[in-house]
Design goal:
Elements: E1 20-24, H1 29-40, E2 44-51, H2 55-58, H3 68-81, E3 85-89, H4 91-107, H5 114-133, E4 138-140, E5 145-150, E6 153-158, H6 175-180, E7 181-182, H7 191-200, H8 222-229, E8 237-240, E9 246-250, E10 274-279, E11 284-288, E12 294-305, E13 317-322, E14 330-336, E15 342-351, E16 358-362, E17 368-375
Parallel strand pairs: 1-2, 1-4, 2-3, 4-7, 8-11
Antiparallel strand pairs: 5-6, 6-17, 8-9, 10-11, 12-15, 12-17, 13-14, 13-16, 14-15, 16-17
Helix pairs in contact: 1-3, 1-7, 4-5
């Protein structure tokens, strides 16, 4: 095909009919609309759904993705729009790459974010490789994030709808992956637009509720999942203050997270106490006043840099960061230590910064995502 051909909506200099795109379909409304939209534009669409965990046990569970009911919904969308759909069994891969680390991290007193690892190690790695095996020109997903072309190539940007933005969960996307990925929903201003498109295409998932929980954690009960995955993990211990005074007892560190206030079982106190530290080795839940949750220095590792120039060579720089998915970026100073390690200094202290969470970097002057790293305890 001549390079003089105008670029299609996915950025290729050829007609949509000659452009094959694999769409990662979870069975939800977002990825369904992506597949339907591209099919309606005449692209050679191939839908792929990953079976990530025991869908037999998950059939009755609402609010999860990639379970039995969702596989059926994805297949129905493909049938409606007339493109092929395949289901790939990734249960073993998902367990090894995501679930096992989730359990081990939680047992280590961290607060993991398995959705990031799933994107990094399964969807944008194994599924992306499958898309290339199918001779696809690109892979599209229903994530709310934008891919824009800059002077040096593809850039990652936050979604137009800040309420739906998923850039926090996609910071570990590499430049090579970004070249191949497309995010057709990132420019939409509201989720209502997505649902309107679903209705326009006659999709049965148009009014399907969004998934809320981590897909393999029913009802958000992390501790129950950990006990099932790691029998004997709920070892009792003491609840202590910062000076080691015993204030109460617990049934296992896995029942607590940094910043937790409710459910401590400590009564008769004038001021509320919060979980400020989890000491797994000592089997202690350390509590203290809210002020003890405030943090300004955040050690990071496993840095993924998406900005211009080398990460280490760029030296100390002012950026904006998110240390949790639900809050807007705040001003910070980024100090590289190595190609994969750094320290972030928050200009305004944040409460409840926890090991196992991500710290995502943003250009303070635009919507561009500059990468990020994983928060840990430091040396």
């Amino acid at each position: 095909m001549s390079l003089d051909h105008p670029l299609n909506s996915l950025g290729f200099a050829k007609p949509p009919a000659q452009t094959r795109v694999v769409v990662a379909m979870s069975g939800g409304v977002d990825s369904s609309v992506v597949a339907a939209q591209l099919a309606s534009e005449g692209y050679d669409v191939v839908g792929v759904t990953l079976q990530l965990y025991d869908h037999g046990a998950a059939l009755a569970k609402k609010g999860a993705c990639c379970a039995g009911r969702d596989i059926q919904d994805a297949a129905r969308v493909a049938e409606t729009m007339g493109f092929p759909h395949y289901v790939l069994d990734y249960e073993n891969t998902f367990r090894e790459a995501v679930i096992d680390e989730f359990a081990d991290s939680y047992l280590g007193g961290a607060t993991p974010v398995p959705c990031i690892r799933c994107n990094e190690r399964v969807k944008f790695k194994d599924l992306l490789a499958t898309a290339k095996d199918l001779d696809a020109d690109c892979m599209a997903t229903g994530h709310y994030i934008q891919r824009k072309m800059g002077a040096a190539g593809a850039e990652l940007h936050a979604a137009a709808d800040s309420q739906r933005d998923q850039s926090y969960f996609l910071f570990s996307t590499t430049e090579e992956q970004l070249d191949y990925l497309r995010f057709p929903l990132g420019h939409l201003s509201t989720k209502a637009e997505t649902r309107a498109l679903a209705a326009q295409f006659g999709l049965t998932v148009a009014d399907k509720p969004d998934s809320q929980d981590i897909c393999f954690v029913p009802n958000g009960d992390y501790a129950a999942v950990i006990k099932k995955l790691r029998p004997g993990a709920a070892v009792p211990g003491d609840i202590v203050d910062n000076e080691g005074h015993v204030l109460g007892h617990h049934d296992g560190v896995i029942h607590y997270t940094i910043g937790q206030r409710r459910g401590l079982g400590i009564g008769g106190l004038v001021d509320p106490l919060y979980v400020v530290k989890l000491d797994v080795e000592a089997r202690q839940v350390v509590v203290g006043p809210k002020a003890m949750l405030a943090t300004r220095r955040v050690p990071l590792r496993e840095i993924n840099w998406l900005g211009d120039g080398g990460f280490l060579a760029g030296g100390t720089r002012q950026i904006a960061v998110k240390v949790r998915s639900t809050k807007p970026p705040t001003e910070a100073i980024l100090r590289p230590i190595s190609d994969t390690e750094a320290e972030v200094e928050l200009l305004a202290a944040e409460e409840g910064v926890s090991p196992g969470q991500a710290c995502v970097f943003y250009d303070p002057a635009s919507t561009r995502v500059l990468g990020g790293g994983w928060i840990w305890r430091g040396h």
